[in-house]
């Protein structure tokens, strides 16, 4: 990573976290596809499989993040945000021109490419703020991941409130906001998203600040849910509508209260350490005492871990004397928990187990999200806006809840975070089975459950990758993990769900399918997919338990010795 000037002081990381909230709301632009897809379908005269393939383009753009993953180690965050701004403007601009019929006759493939470009802005926005904040708060990765991913998940509800209350269900105006509003917002936040010197240790005030951020996000989620429900049953005047939106904006700004409080009531100055783009920065020099000594000192459980790396240490034994005399420079492959390069991570079984588990679980969840409008119609629901809000709210609950809960248990019991992925996949399996049998009222029970599980899978992935493979190349490794989402969307949503839906619609001699059979086969297949994911997640959890015992044996995150590569 190039030498980047760090913003010193205790406030800048929290200012950056508050700005990241707005950028991640912008990064949730891909969730709007169910809102404007009916207009694309009618204007272009598409069938369900064609609109589903556009949904796959939406997912591909959202998750192909290899380039921003590489760029985050070479360029400052503002450069990544700038690329996202350009992609957002160009991609959604084409979609706006299409829906408003300002330009007529654009080919299907161009619309597909425009969707990929538009939603790919998500990866540039998300990578910039996620990697920066994970490095600014290296000792609270699960909590930070839960907060940031939570706001990204609830973005759909924010857009839905704007769509219903301000835009009055206007697809063209929604696309105009995505074309112009998001770039302006991200340009305004660009200055505040920057690498900072992270705190060298955990303290009570930092813990209180994280709790405040979590409470603020929960309050926002509840407010959005209640506002959406009220607007659906009561006719609101323009004045009331704008007041409700203003309250939403104020709640979104609440994380700024933390740096304001730190300015008005400054705490005792604490030492700062270099940015955690690598674990190396948190290892003290010889003879130097730092506040992180307690994190790096072997705990009482260390005697039980002697055999953890015994086999690999035996291979190094022959080099120890030469290394000690300076005749040979020790070089070995990194161990789990240290900093991996992408090619080193790709040969690890744990990497592929984690990738496949994510691919199966997130692929199943995104299939429901992409087809949410059609699922609602198939089950006899005309307006599916509430379903999208429910999914978004529960997606948020899963993200922020799993971040906080996994952080608690990993510190208290050294339980791998992937255990919560296992539970999520088990719940998804049962939910899809119930969905397939179309029980009365199942829609409003199944969608929230799937939203929670979808959020858990997304949020748990972030700190797990950083803990197993380090922070130095986290952006690229995490982006590679994200490739499972579009592949899952293509297989399960584009090929399976779209084909089954059109086949059932053809039986009904209609372009729209109504009834439980529209998605029955799809739900049964997805149940089997989640069953396989559950088994693999259990295997992964058992394999990486010793790693978490090593990293958290002292009750807090302990960085292992570096591999020297």
UniProtKB/TrEMBL annotation:
Keywords on record: Membrane, Transmembrane, Transmembrane helix
Where does this protein chiefly localize?
A: membrane
Question: Could you give one GO CC term from the UniProt record?
Answer: membrane
Give me the stretches of Basic and acidic residues compositional bias.
278-288
Region (Disordered) location: 271-300
Record localization? Membrane
The membrane topology noted for this protein in its Swiss-Prot or TrEMBL record is: Multi-pass membrane protein
The residue ranges flagged as biased composition, category Low complexity, are 289-300
All residue ranges annotated as the Nodulin-like domain in the record:
13-260
Kindly provide the name given to this protein in its UniProt entry: Nodulin-like domain-containing protein
Provide the organism lineage as a comma list.
Eukaryota, Viridiplantae, Streptophyta, Embryophyta, Tracheophyta
């Amino acid at each position: 990573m190039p030498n980047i000037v760090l913003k010193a002081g205790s406030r800048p990381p929290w200012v950056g976290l508050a700005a990241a909230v707005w950028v991640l709301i912008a990064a949730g632009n891909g969730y709007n596809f169910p809102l404007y897809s009916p207009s694309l379908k009618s204007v272009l005269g598409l069938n369900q499989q064609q609109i589903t393939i556009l949904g796959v383009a939406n997912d591909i753009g959202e998750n192909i993040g290899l380039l921003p993953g590489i760029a985050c180690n070479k360029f400052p965050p503002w450069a990544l945000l700038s690329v996202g701004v350009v992609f957002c403007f160009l991609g959604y601009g084409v979609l706006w021109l299409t829906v408003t019929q300002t330009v007529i006759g654009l080919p299907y493939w161009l619309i597909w490419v425009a969707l990929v470009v538009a939603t790919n802005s998500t990866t540039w926005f998300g990578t910039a703020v996620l990697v920066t904040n994970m490095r600014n708060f290296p000792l609270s990765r699960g909590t930070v991941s839960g907060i940031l991913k939570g706001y990204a998940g609830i973005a759909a509800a924010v857009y839905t409130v704007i769509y219903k209350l301000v835009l009055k269900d206007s697809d063209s105006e929604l696309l105009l906001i995505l074309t112009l509003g998001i770039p302006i917002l991200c340009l305004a936040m660009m200055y505040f998203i920057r690498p900072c010197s992270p705190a060298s240790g955990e303290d009570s005030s930092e813990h209180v600040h994280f709790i405040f951020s979590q409470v603020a996000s929960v309050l926002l989620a509840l407010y959005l849910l209640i506002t959406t429900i009220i607007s659906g049953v009561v006719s609101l005047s323009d004045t009331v509508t704008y007041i409700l939106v203003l309250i939403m904006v104020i709640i979104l700004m609440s994380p700024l209260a933390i740096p304001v409080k730190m300015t008005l009531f400054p705490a005792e100055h604490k030492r700062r350490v270099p940015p955690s783009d690598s674990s190396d920065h948190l290892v003290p020099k010889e003879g130097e005492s730092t506040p992180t000594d307690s994190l790096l000192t072997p705990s009482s459980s260390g005697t039980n871990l002697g055999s953890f790396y015994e086999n690999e240490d035996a291979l190094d034994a022959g080099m120890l004397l030469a290394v000690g005399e300076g005749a040979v420079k020790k070089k070995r492959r990194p161990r789990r928990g240290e900093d991996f390069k992408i090619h080193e991570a790709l040969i690890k079984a744990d990497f592929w187990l984690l990738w496949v588990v994510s691919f199966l679980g997130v692929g199943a969840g995104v299939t429901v999200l992409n087809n949410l409008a059609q699922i609602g119609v198939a089950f006899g629901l005309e307006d599916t806006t509430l379903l999208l809000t429910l999914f978004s709210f529960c997606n948020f609950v899963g993200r922020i809840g799993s971040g906080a809960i996994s952080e608690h248990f990993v510190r208290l019991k050294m339980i791998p975070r992937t255990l919560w992925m296992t539970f999520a996949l088990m719940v998804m399996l049962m939910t899809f089975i119930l969905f397939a049998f179309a029980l009365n009222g199942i829609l409003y029970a199944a969608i929230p459950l799937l939203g929670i599980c979808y959020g858990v899978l997304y949020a748990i992935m972030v700190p797990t990758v950083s803990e197993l493979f380090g922070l130095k190349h986290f952006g690229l490794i995490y982006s590679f993990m994200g490739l499972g989402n579009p592949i899952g969307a293509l297989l399960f949503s584009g090929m399976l769900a779209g084909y089954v839906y059109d086949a059932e619609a053809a039986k009904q001699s209609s372009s729209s399918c109504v009834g439980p059979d529209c998605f029955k086969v799809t739900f049964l297949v997805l149940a089997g997919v989640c069953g396989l994911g559950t088994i693999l997640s259990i295997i992964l959890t058992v394999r990486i338990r010793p790693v978490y015992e090593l990293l958290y044996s002292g009750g807090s995150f302990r960085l292992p010795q570096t591999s020297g590569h």
